[in-house]
Amino acid sequence: MITFKDVITNEQIRTYIEAADNSLRALGFTEHSYAHAAKVAETAKYILSVLNFSEREIELAQIAAYLHDIGNLVNRIDHAQSGAVMAFRILDNLGMSSSDIAVIVSAIGNHDESTAFPVNAVAAALILADKTDVRRSRVRNADISSFDIHDRVNYSVRKAETLLDDEKKLFILQLDIDTSYGSVMDYFEIFLDRMILCRKAAEKLGLRFHLFANKQQLL
Question: Which one of 48, 106, 140, 167 is separated from 98 by 20 to 30 angstroms, measured CA to CA?
């Protein structure tokens, strides 16, 4: 059985993640390297663990989360689909079962907001984990004066915290935003589609999605 440890220690996979992130760096995008992959995997694990999913489903979510952005190696456009195909080939060559591959590939292929849909629980956990990873440390542009809106929004987030209340069936994203760099309106301008997707993903897991910015509920 292929484990999450097998995936994160695989040199081929590490090469693809690094190369994909280098492509995004050249395009001026925020960090999508090991830190993002690991953060998304940890949050996906947290979500399904709190909801008492099986150990294997949790591990599949971690694997999908760790691999979800490798398609950027091919191109930023349609990276969810190219990443799903890459993941299929990698995991098939490693000897993973077809049933496990099917879950992971479906999740990766459905994680990007332009074409995304929470087709299964793993996909829902991946969407929530990916779209809530907003933080200052992902900004690579050292020149604040040249920030675009994506840089401003990510840099303005001093802290982002995800909380899951299984009793109340709530998934909450709490943001601490420094409005001297970006406004709450800026956040909505580029992240509204992502937040709508988070709501759908939360509903797939039987949850309601709430967004708080500077202690004010926005969704």
Answer: 48
